[in-house]
Design goal:
274 residues, Jelly Rolls, Arc Repressor Mutant, subunit A, 3 domains, 11 helices, 10 strands, flat
């Protein structure tokens, strides 16, 4: 179970709106290699690896690896990865525009799933010194304490254009009326402007977020359920899917498997609780 090798760590209070949490993964020396699956979350993650390389992919073949530093996100598809003995990984889970405020890089059209290894290396080189410092600490507590100080000192202030989006973030969780229309009307901006700024700061469109939030609710409903206990037609109606093929299409897009195959992943599947 992931709970025995992974641990969520709360970030400093000053970082609450920027970092959902840190996540530590450590395995003992006698740990047998095991494959895990991480659900899509649309989050940006910064991973620091202090152990052996970690093989991963966005499909069935573990054809890539995390060496020391890795930038991942927005996580649109299920991540498959393999942990072996002596794994030692610390992950920063950014929320909203936290990643943008760290690297001041536009998130629009950012798709790290398709980046080459050389392009990823160019992005992580600026974090090499940070990795060296973190690696010198003997435990995760000292690493996260240093990360708290590092991030508080380096995160830039919110840009004025981002403030209206952050202020109305809750509208996306109960979209009776189009959140884009609400933000556009209350800020005297066009819907197109709101959409472009959304992509710039968080890396995905409002429409994509709404689609994902619905799918996330479906995942929570199905987690730890057996196939026999699921009424698929009730599920389709409850979450507003057109039909069974519509539901399957979302599962294939986000996880690469069918709803029934997802149920069989059981303990090897991890999802965000935020």
């Amino acid at each position: 179970m992931m709970e025995s090798i992974g641990r969520r760590i709360t970030a400093a209070p000053e970082l609450t709106d920027l970092i959902g949490h840190y996540y530590e993964i450590q395995t003992p020396s006698g740990f047998d290699p095991q494959v895990y699956h991480l659900s899509p979350s649309l989050e940006m993650m910064l991973a620091f690896n202090f152990g052996p390389p970690i093989r991963f992919s966005f499909g069935s073949q573990l054809d890539r690896s995390i060496q020391k530093i890795f930038i991942l996100g927005p996580l649109r598809h299920m991540l498959t990865y393999e942990l072996s003995a002596n794994a030692d990984l610390l992950i920063v889970n950014f929320t909203h525009n936290g990643f943008y405020r760290l690297l001041s890089q536009s998130m629009q059209n950012l798709n790290l799933e398709e980046w080459s290894e050389s392009k990823l290396l160019a992005q992580t080189q600026q974090l090499e010194e940070l990795w060296q410092t973190l690696a010198s600490f003997p435990d995760t507590h000292q690493r996260t304490e240093y990360l708290n100080s590092y991030l508080v000192a380096r995160l830039t202030p919110d840009e004025a254009e981002a403030v209206p989006l952050l202020t109305h973030a809750a509208a996306f969780h109960s979209p009776v009326v189009s959140p884009v229309k609400i933000i556009a009307a209350e800020t005297n901006r066009t819907e197109r402007t709101v959409q472009l700024r959304f992509k710039k700061y968080v890396g995905y469109s409002p429409k994509e977020l709404l689609r994902f939030l619905r799918f996330k609710e479906v995942l929570h409903t199905l987690t730890n359920r057996s196939e026999a206990s699921v009424n698929w037609f009730e599920l389709i109606e409850q979450y507003g899917y057109h039909d069974q093929s519509h539901l399957i299409k979302d599962f294939q897009y986000y996880t690469g498997v069918s709803p029934r195959q997802f149920l069989k992943l059981s303990d090897a599947f991890c999802s965000s609780r935020d």
